[in-house]
Structures are given as C-alpha cells and as structure tokens.
Amino acid sequence: MAETNFVDYVKIYCRSGKGGAGSTHLHREKFTPKGGPDGGDGGRGGHVILKGNKNYWTLIHLKFEKHVIAGHGGSGSSSRSFGADGEDKIIEVPCGTVVYDAETGEFLCDVTEHGQEVILLKGGRGGLGNWHFRSATNQTPRYAQPGEPAIERTVVMELKVLADVGLVGFPNVGKSTLLSVVSAAKPKIANYPFTTLVPNLGIVPYRDHKSFAMADIPGIIEGASEGKGLGLRFLRHIERNAILLFLVPADSDDIEKEYNILLNELEQYNPELLGKQRVLAISKSDMLDEELMADIEKTLPKDIPHIFISAVSNMGITELKDILWEELSKDENRHVTISHRPMDVKFIEDNDEDLEVEFDDDYDYDVEFDEEDDNESNKGDL
Span 163-373: which CATH code? Predict the structure, then answer.
C-alpha cells in the first residue's frame, strides 16, 4: 500500500574512505648500488556519491540502510607503485531528493535529474611516497605522507516530489477524486479528514499523445506551516511543482477566504511559492446552476484563471486540462527553481521518532460521518 511504502524522509550516517599512506621504500637491487627512494603514493579514499534514478519514487530502500561507508585507499609500495583507490559508495536516490546536515540543518545538495551524480563526501587524498621528497641534500628520505583522514557526517535526505501540477486544498475538497478521474492513479478516497496521508502521483493524458504529471498533496489546514495537521511534513512537495491547482468546494461559506488561507500557509512556509503560477478550480460544481455560478464568479480572485468543475459528472474536466496545459507550455512555468532553506534542527529531532500528527481542536472539518459509508472506501468526496 502507498501509505506504508512511501518514505520521503531518512536520516543516515555516511563516511568516506581515508587516503592510503605513501611508501618509504628504498630501492634495493643487485648491481644497483644506492638505488635511492622509490616509494609510491597512497591511493585515494572512496567517495560517497549520490546518483539520481528516475525509477525510484520513494526513499524506502534507504530506510534500513543507516550506515553508508566507502572503502579506504591502499598504501603505496616499491617501484613507485600507487596504492589502490578505495571503493566508491554510490547511493541511488529518486529525482527531487534534497540533502541536509543532520546536526546543523545546513542545505548540502539536491539531485533533480536522472543520472546526475553529486559527491556528497570526498574520499581522503593518498599520501605522497618518499620518492617525491628526494633532493640533492636529502637523497634518501625515510619519510612519506600519511593519507588524508576520512570524512564522516550524518545527513537527512528529504524527497520533494517532482510533478508538473500540484493539488492544493483543505481536507475533503476532492483532490484525490480529481486525480483518480483525470489519471490512472488509484488514491484512497473516503469521507473523512486526511484520507490522503502521503502524496500520490498520476500521469494525466492530453491531446496528441501528450501528458503531464499531477501530484495529490495531503490536505492543508490553517496553521499547517506551524505544524498542525499534516501540512508541515508535506508542504515541501509543493516546492517542486511547476503549477499549483487550488481546489475549493462550491459549498464553501467563503471561497475567497479559503483560497487566501491556503495562499497564506504557502507564504508562511516558503515565500518563493507565491511566484508559482496558480489556477483556481471550484469543485463540486454539479450542485450549482448558472445563476449561482455567476454570483460566485464575482467573488473570485481576478489575477488567476478559474474554472468550475465536478469530478463526479466530468463537468469542466476537459477545459481544466486545457488551462493547465496552456500554463505548462509557457516558458516561465517550464523550469522549476527553488531556493532550499536550511532545515530546522528541531524538525529533525522530532522526525527521528514516528510521525505524530497534531490536529487543531478548534478547526471545523465540516464532515458528517455515516455508519453505512464507513466501509465503503470509494464514496466520492466531491
């Protein structure tokens, strides 16, 4: 199940290899008097390397590999022979992985492309053999350099899902239902808050064999940027999306207010998110007539495209795809760039244990439970 297999946060200990020592060998051979120094250099220690792999979409393969250790370099030997280089340790990660220092929270690097390699920890350089230190006044040096020591560091790896369109909205506004209608994804759908506990990805087919990726992010509530609900843990996935599709239900008391709350949570989390192109979709619109739509339209924000949709009746779904593809085709929305802020060390400490969800007792989720529907996981939330 996606709830158990999706891992987007791991903390591991990494250590590169130390460099090999240089040799202090003096050449000894019959009929070669005073052969002099011929000690070779030590080998380089192994690197710890991150490599992007598009076939991975979660960090679960690293969940139980808590120690990543590269090989040490070999020592130099006679006849100026170099020591063997230490074995590099390659860690394959899904595209969109960001790495932080676990002690300071400092941003170290990120991997965004398939096949991209980033040296996380460099192996120590090998020491020079005594052959390098010979001179006219010191013809038999009996010393050589030791290899450089290994580098060790505990790092945190976070996955930020790469998708063209990210769904943003309160719990139970129909994000999972929309994803299941426009793509072949099968997210869990039920009539209670936080049905979606992990991001879900779906490929949305479009005209002329074109397609784009859509991500369903767990619901955001007011205060998500401060750790309430699930928002703080999963808001980071929105950073990698090219376009943000806001979903607000038609039966909401104040559509504009809900939209502004969502926008404010994104701003509090990372102000750069406000620079992304936004589209507003009014879900559950099959319950509206044209007169009500006209009244609601007057209250909607004027600076972004909007559309009335219903995943149950397929109302406006084709038009929504057209709007999203038109926005994705623009050059300014084609490349996603984001500045990664240092990670909060307290957040690292809190996530060393199992995830604990903080719910807001004052928040009205506006969900009615029906005992007959408890076991029916496919009841629509639109």
Answer: 3.40.50.300
